Amino acid sequence: MKVLITGFEPFGEEKINPSWEAVKMLPEEIEGARIVKKQLPVSFKRVRRLLPELIDDTKPDLVLLTGQAGGRFNITVERVAINVMDSVKGDNDGYAPEDELIFNGPAAYFATIPIRRIVKTLREEKIPATISNSAGTYVCNTAMYTALHHISSQGLKAKAGFIHVPYIPEQVLDKTKPSMSLDMIKRGIQLAVRESLKSL
Ligand code: PCA
Q1: Domain holding 153: CATH number?
Q2: Range of the domain at 165
C-alpha cells in the first residue's frame, strides 16, 4: 500500500503552513503503508497540473490532502469539493479567478475517504474534529476537486480526501484566532491515514 499525502506551502501573511509542518513530521510508514509526502504550491493553475502528475507517478492507494484553514478551531474533514475557483485575494502566483470552473466536469465530488469514521476516531482520541461541508473556493478546494476528478476520470482505484487544520500557536501570537498544537494536528492526520487505510 502507498499513501500520497500533501501539505501546502505558506500563503498570505503566513511564514509557515501547519499542514506541511505536520505532514513533514509523519513517519515514513503507517500500518505498513509507505507514506509519500509532497508539498503543493498555493497556485490554482500549478495544482491543477501537478496533482494529476503526482498521482500518476506515485500510483497511490490513498490520496490524503491537507491544508491550513486559519480561523477554524478544530480539524475538519471535508465532505465535498465543488467545481469552482473563486478568490478575491489571489493565489501565490497573483492569480485571482472569479467564478471559474476547475475542469469540464461535474459540479462536485464527495470525498471517498470515510469522513464520519475519521471524525469519530479523532474525537475518541480527544482531538477536536468535525466534518466540514465546504472546503471553500480557494486552492484547497481546487486540489481536492482535481484529485477526485483525476481518479474518477482515469478510472483509478485510489480513494481521496481533504483535511483542513487550524493555525498552530506560533501563528496566532498577534491574532485573536484559535490554534491547535502541531503535535495534535500531526496525530490527527496520522489517525486519518490509519482509518482511511482500513477502508481500502
Ligand atoms: N489553505 C488554503 C490553500 C492552501 C492552504 O493551506 C485553502 O484552504 O484553500
Answers
A1: 3.40.630.20
A2: 2-198
Which amino acids bring their CB within 6 angstroms of ligand 1?
8, 11, 17, 19, 42, 67-69, 136, 138-140
Ligand 1 atom at minimum distance from 20 CA: 6
How high is the pLDDT of residue 66?
99
- Ligand 1 pocket test: pick from 50, 82, 85, 138 the residue with the most ligand atoms within 8 Å of its Cβ: 138
Active-site positions read 78, 140, 164
Strands 75-78 and 80-82: unpaired
Per-residue model confidence as pLDDT tens digits over 100-127: 999 999 999 999 999 999 999 999 999 9
Kindly give, in sequence order, each residue whose CB lies less than 8 Å from that of residue 49, ignoring residues fewer than 6 positions away: none
The count of residues in the chain is 200
Reduced DSSP (H G I as helix, E B as strand, rest coil) percent helix, strand, coil of the chain, to 5: 35, 25, 40
pTM of the predicted protein model: 0.98
Ligand 1: nearest atom to the Cα of 40: 4
In this structure, are residues 185 and 18 in contact, taking their beta carbons and an 8 Å threshold?
yes
Q: Tell the burial category of 173 from Cβ atoms under 10 Å away from its Cβ (0-12, 13-18, 19+).
A: exposed
Query: 3-class SS at 33?
Result: strand
CA of 157 to the centre of ligand 1 (A): 26
Number of domains in the chain: 1
Phi, psi for 126 (deg, rounded to 5):
65, 30
